[in-house]
Amino acid sequence: MLDFETGQLDQLNHLLGELVPGNAFYQAKIEAAGCGYRFESLDDFRTAFPTTVKSELIADQIAHAPYGTNLTYDLKRYVRFNRTSGTSGNPMRWLDTPESWSWMVDNWVKVFQAAGTAEGDRILFAFSFGPFLGFWTAFEAAGRLGALALPAGGMSSLARLRMIHDNQATVLCCTPTYALRLGEAALDHHDLDLHSVKTLIVAGEPGAGIPETRRQIEALWPGARLVDHHGMTEVGPVSYGLPENPDILRIIETAYIAEVVDPKTGRAVGPGHEGELLLTTLGRVGSPLLRYRTGDLVRPWAEAPVGMGPYYLDGGILGRIDDMILVRGVNIYPASVESVIRRFSEIAEFRVHVRTVRRMSELSIVIEPGGECDNPDDLCRRLQEELKSAFALRIPVSLTEEGSLPRFEMKARRWIRD
After folding, report:
1. Which of 107, 117, 292, 299 has its CA 20 to 30 A from that of 189?
2. 393 and 281, same structural domain?
3. Does the CA dihedral 251-252-255-257 come out positive or negative?
4. Of 320, 339, 359, which closes a domain?
């Protein structure tokens, strides 16, 4: 057993012990599996304990509205409410005790520290502060770190740029899409000094893990380092990008048990192979998830330290298992399409349409040229050729007028099912 796994096993057994007698959701699963509430090894846990899937949690919350039965303690112990965005189905409500919330804040402190953020930094949060978890715990972690937290919810892009300028913010937290949007908006406001920003921490969607998107963001924020992060409302803040290797996401191994499995067979996959990420939240005792199938497609890094493969993700979050589209025999993920589109700096924004023709999925792409594009028709042709080279498919590309496609602050919704 590796050194960190000893601590994981201790935390796991403590968590399982806390589930009795309050957590009806996991008691029912444990009794059905007959696996008991204590394990001698993590291998035993991974072998005997059943996985948890999102549909179970949604059904439980419908049957036991509003919060379901995955609550370890009496309801009066819970002080924080969040809700998933619901982009892939019914939103889930999530409650936290003060202890579970503090555990998540501690994890965000680790993310900040890995990004080189420290006491005295000024962190601007270009975040709506809505009901999903997002940067809520990051905002509190900034204070715990000794940094100045600058809330920028409910503001226009120009107002946020002025806030960066006025406060000389050193760190910007937002989605990759909004980092692009804010950087583009800054091009029209040369009177604002934004060079104080030394670090961008982005989360909420793939982007920083896509080299072409990362290069565009870095070009718009010269001198700033881009750091990726991922988490989920139901599991909390999970990982951070390695500053020395931006293609890798590292899961916080002191907080999570991570597994990467074949989504069809459930068997573990080895380094260099793609699979679905499973997570066990070791410190979110009030509303835990054990062997949770996140739906995230990942690839354990082939060069990770021995035994650490599932904790180092090559390319970050590659996509969502349920986002994969089969087009004429070719598996296509949104991130792979974006990686091709972002090779063209003349494209300001895009939208992908998915429609079903004779029970088969077909793609088409609409692009909005930027102001620096001299020949939009040639841009369409070149992108179509690049897509054909990447996927061996002819994907039609059409133009729309400048400024006609929506811009996004939070998770972008560029894929439209017609």
Report:
1. 117
2. no
3. positive
4. 320
Task: Report which secondary-structure segment, H or E, holds 136.
Answer: helix 136-145
Predicted confidence (pLDDT) per residue in 104-160, tens digit: 999 999 999 999 999 999 999 999 898 989 999 999 999 999 999 999 999 999 999
The DSSP-derived string for 23-68 is: -HHHHHHHHHHT--S--SSHHHHHHHSPPB-HHHHHHHHHHTTTT-
Euclidean distance between CA atoms 304 and 297, whole angstroms? 18
Do residues 314 and 367 share a domain? no
- Look at residue 89 in the predicted model and tell me its pLDDT: 58
**Together in a domain, 211 and 346:** no
Angstrom CA distances, 65 to 73, 83, 136, 152, 270, stand at: 16, 14, 25, 33, 40
SS3 of residue 173 by DSSP: strand
Beta bridge partners of 250: 240, 312
Same domain, yes or no: 245 and 300 = yes
Q: Is the pLDDT of residue 87 over 60?
A: no
Provide the domain limits for residue 8: 1-320
Phi/psi of residue 42, nearest 5 degrees:
-70, -30
Query: Could you give the CA distance from residue 88 to residue 366 in angstroms, rounded to a whole number?
Result: 23
Q: Give the pLDDT confidence of 150-199 residue by residue, as tens digits.
A: 999 999 999 999 999 999 999 999 999 899 999 999 998 999 999 999 99
CATH number at residue 399: 3.30.300.30
User: Which candidate, 137, 151, 79, places its Cα nearest to that of 109?
Assistant: 137
For 179-318, strand residue ranges (E) read 199-202, 225-232, 236-242, 245-251, 256-261, 275-281, 292-298, 312-314
Q: Which residues pair with 355 in a beta bridge?
A: 362
pTM of the full predicted structure?
A: 0.86
